[in-house]
Design a protein that fits this description.
By secondary structure, the chain is an alpha/beta fold. It has helices spanning 12-25, 39-42, 45-51, 56-64, 69-89, 105-108, 110-113, 124-136, 157-164, 185-198, 212-215, 224-234, 247-253, 264-271, and strands spanning 94-98, 117-122, 145-149, 172-176, 204-211, 241-242, 256-262, 287-294. It has a single domain, classed as Vaccinia Virus protein VP39 (Rossmann fold), CATH 3.40.50. Strands 1, 2, 3, 4, 5, 6, 7 and 8 form an eight-stranded mixed beta sheet that branches.
């Protein structure tokens, strides 16, 4: 069997997310501006210089990004940032990021982290590229940050985490940002069974997923056609999606209770609404965000 592309080269979607965050950190438009200035440190030097040219980032996105995906990445980043910071303020013992890519929360929120340990799971080649960029830019890696290379479809999560010093049954925030849609359905099931096994009382999981209709190429959602065309070119196809109403029952099977679900319309109201109630940026409607809490058995 041939290797998946992400086993041999860095994830294109992880790179695109990092670039979008870097562009967003330079935005003058208040609704579009986000706080991930460290993302700029992870893009190549010539790209960083180019992005400082007025409107260069926006023109790049208009040429190469599907409608509403930039807005979605901004909203998703802000949403999960808020969940991340709240978990740290509530003294969660651990944070576990699945498919961390070029995410910088472990460094950005180091002051808030206190004694919490932050574990980053990802394909080895992407993780090595990220660590290399940190070192190249002189960004120190804090002692509470643990990198765990893994192939989600082939390796045992619990074994890898045990070897990395992950504490079972501790109050943990599990983050699957841009992950579930790339896994086979059996791998999604195994991932959530593992989370159920590892999660201590009060643990939370936050993740995004795509609507199942997108996998059927129905083309009814804003930005869907452009998004599926873009994904076909990356070599990282989507494999998993959920139907309307499936998210609550799915989480319940793994001992979690759905506390929040946001679709594109909800996210537009949260992050792109002006004082008059108008929407200043439409969000790609292929994705949803969800947050759930471990319930007592």
């Amino acid at each position: 069997m041939s290797k998946k592309r992400i086993e041999t080269t860095t994830s294109k979607t992880a790179e695109w997310t990092c670039l979008s965050r870097a562009i967003s950190s330079l935005e003058k438009r208040p609704h579009y501006r986000s706080d991930d200035r460290l993302a700029l440190s992870l893009v190549p030097g010539f790209v960083r210089l180019l992005l400082r040219v007025p409107f260069a980032g926006r023109l790049f996105l208009k040429a190469f990004a599907a409608k509403g995906m930039y807005e979605y990445v901004i909203a998703r980043t802000k949403y999960i940032d808020a969940v991340f910071k709240r978990a740290l303020s509530e003294r969660f013992a651990q944070v576990l990021l699945f498919g961390a890519g070029f995410d910088t929360r472990a460094l950005r929120f180091q002051k808030e982290a206190g004694e919490a340990r932050i574990f980053e799971l990802d394909a080895a080649v992407t993780q090595e590229a990220k660590i290399g960029q940190y070192r190249k830019r002189g960004l120190g890696i804090p002692s509470n940050v643990v990198f765990v290379p893994i192939d989600f479809d082939k390796e045992f999560l619990t074994l890898k985490l045990d070897q990395a010093g992950f504490q079972r049954d501790a109050k943990t925030l599990f983050i699957l940002e841009g992950v579930s849609m790339y896994l086979e359905p059996e791998s999604v099931d195994q991932t959530f069974r593992t989370i159920q096994e590892l999660a201590g009382a009060g643990s939370e999981v936050v993740f995004d997923y795509i609507q199942a209709s997108v996998l059927r190429h129905e083309g009814a959602r804003y930005g869907e056609k452009g998004t599926t065309k873009t994904m076909a070119k990356t070599g990282e196809p989507w494999r998993f999606g959920l139907e309307e109403g499936e998210i609550g029952p799915l989480l319940s099977r793994y001992g979690f209770e759905l506390r929040d679900r946001r679709d594109a319309h909800d996210l537009e109201e949260m992050f792109f609404q002006d004082p008059a109630g108008g929407v200043v940026g439409r969000i790609n409607a292929t994705h949803c965000l969800a947050r759930a809490v471990r319930v007592e058995e």
